[in-house]
Amino acid sequence: MTLQQPSVRGAVHNWVIGARLKTLPVSYAPLAVGLAIAHAYGSVDAWRAVLTVVLVLGFVLGTNFFNDYSDGIRGVDDHRAGPTRVVGSGRATPRQVFRHGAVLYGIGALAGLGLAVLVSWWLLAVTALIALGGWFYTGGSRPYGYRGLGEISIFFYHGVVFVCVPAYVQLGRVPWEALAGAVPVGLLACALLTTNNLRDIPTDAAAGKITLAVRRGAGWARRFYVFCVVGAFAAALLVAFAHPWALLVLGAVPFAVFPVRRVVSGAGGRDLIPALEHTCLMLLVFGTLQAIGMAL
Question: Terminus of the chain with fewer CB atoms < 10 Å: N or C?
Fold first, then answer.
């Protein structure tokens, strides 16, 4: 069966699906916190900020397409309980999806090169680290996302790297607030991934994708989700001893109630999709309030 070329509208729709734009809070939150910390020190250059955002989004969105490609050709997405994937659903060929990812990686790499010229050449190494981490999450012959290392990866990249890099680009150093601020957003990023993996336990296990949720079981995954959410608020509040305005993150507590209840209630499969969406919303609100608190 030959795949028909989609219309312009269909191609745009496929791009939106492949980019997974609904998950952008997981990238917005660390960027906002990192730039807010730089603002607190009185140094934010607009061009450097724009290049940093392009760097992060280029690789994050590109990785989403590469994940769609890699999972699709392995058959992981053939019977999904979650949102549609482009390759798995047959909306586009693996080659088309791979090409989208490669273009976005190219854009991210150019932004990284620009920052290396403006700030420090070691940022080329950081750019390469981000690119390799994104590709080998589900790509290559031994993807680490299939071996229970996804949570460690997302904490490192969407917590430590994506908070500290914006701060370093602006300040030329990484202040302690950047490391402290990376912990809560990294934990909430882990919570988001855990919700996704909890939902996909049956299909991931059948396809040989051994996530932590598959390895440790649904009960453990639900407890880990609660740990990440509670730990994120606790870590943010510890910063309040030095920055009282960090208490603003308490405004995100109401947004945590629904997803936590849904996860601990034993919901599974498609019933976890609302929990995933509300975890994204919680991360969006939390990241905004944390950034404001760090900037003041």
Answer: N
